[in-house]
Amino acid sequence: MTDMLTIRRPDDWHLHFRDGEVMRGVVPYTARQFARAIVMPNLSPPVTTAEMAAAYRERILAAVPEGERFTPLMTCYLTDTTDPDDLARGASAGVFTAAKLYPANATTNSAHGVSDVAKIYPVLERMEAEGIVLCVHGEVTDHQIDVFDREAEFIERHMRAIVRDFPKLKVVFEHITTADAAIFVMEQGENVAATITPQHLHINRNAMLVGGIQPHNYCLPVAKRETHRLALRKAATSGNPKFFLGTDSAPHLRSAKESSCGCAGIFNAPYALESYLSAFDEEGALDAFEGFASLHGSAFYGLPVNKETITLERAEVPVPESLPLVDEEIVPWHAGQVLGWRIAS
Ligand code: DOR
Ligand code: ZN
Fold it and tell me: Whose Cα sits closest to atom 2 in ligand 1?
């Protein structure tokens, strides 16, 4: 049995830091494990210009604990009126690494998102020409569509058209939750990839709804049936470079989660690597972990692989029931459970 695993230092290709005090409280959890992270722009107001992204990046860097080396990679929040020139300028100046498509009202702070994909066709055309990565929250918002079907429906209504009309555009289908999305990604060229969160490797929809409503297992897209969880495990551990790590860690304070209208989002940053690794271990796929966590994402984004390494060792790691944050508390993913791996160095 392998008890130690040394891999290149990993990156998180999908993450929410928020801003202000919450951001300062959560950045250290990510900087402890990851060299870089794609930082999502769904602040209030959203990060829609290169100027806003550059200022946000500075605030994040100021929150990185001394001695940690961590690089935030910024994204532009696409709206119906995004200026292709500002986006292209921001990308060539090294401010923007990617742009994020939120269908309007799909999730937290997405009210300013895109109301109709056709409206951003000039932006997508420019992104394709400039090699700027498009990150997609792939869920339709149509109220007629069952919440468990919204990702699969997005593929039919939008993803197929985007990859057909922009055959060279680099697209990341973010936080995929269905076998349909995994298959779709596998069927496309190497310009189409997907991130997978730890929670979607561990839970199915029962975890949200059985034994009482479990708000800390609620995120968007919601976890689906067991068949989908198994398909995601297969994709993540397959060694296919189209699939890589993106935690979608999304901090909401306990009071915002445990409410009559609880927020969507799972705060998995504190034990993210340990969580992923236990899933890979259960699948007998430890040898596939470095690719998923540390190699595939940088290859897709065209960025260098990290030089440093990180060592994980088999050990019992009890996850606290809650962590202090901003005079309150936040419940981490796996709260109260014991994980089987820890970061040794
Ligand atoms: O569960 C989620 N939380 N899904 C998202 O897409 C956004 C995120 C957040 O920002 O809270
Ligand atoms: Zn997200």
Answer: 265
The domains found in the chain, sorted by start residue, are: 10-305 (3.20.20.140)
How close is the Cα of 163 to the center of ligand 1, in Å? 24
pLDDT at 106: 82
Ligand 1 atom nearest residue 219's Cα: 1
Find out whether 216 and 196 touch, Cβ atoms under 8 Å: no
Structure tokens at 181: 């999305």
Check if the beta carbon of residue 289 is closer than 8 Å to that of residue 276: yes
Q: Which of 27, 98, 52, 125 is nearest to 297 (CA)?
A: 98
Catalytic site residue from 248, 281, 287, 327: 248
* Residues surrounding ion ligand 2 at CB below 5 Å: 248
Within 6 Å (CB) of ligand 1, which residues are found? 16, 42, 107-108, 137, 219-220, 250, 264-265
What pLDDT sits at residue 1?
78
Per residue in 212-256, pLDDT (tens digit) is: 999 999 999 999 999 999 999 999 999 999 999 999 999 999 999
Mean pLDDT of 27-41: 98
* Active-site annotation holds for 248: yes
Q: What is the mean pLDDT of residues 50-57?
A: 97
Span 107-113, mean pLDDT?
A: 87
Q: How far apart are CA 216 and CA 223, in angstroms?
A: 12
Residue 109, pLDDT above cutoff 90: no
pTM greater than the 0.85 cutoff = yes
CA separation for the pair 116, 327 (Å, rounded): 40
Contact 248, 15 (CB under 8 A): yes
Q: What is the CA radius of gyration of the chain?
A: 19
What pairing do the DSSP bridges indicate for beta strands 323-325 and 309-318?
Answer: unpaired
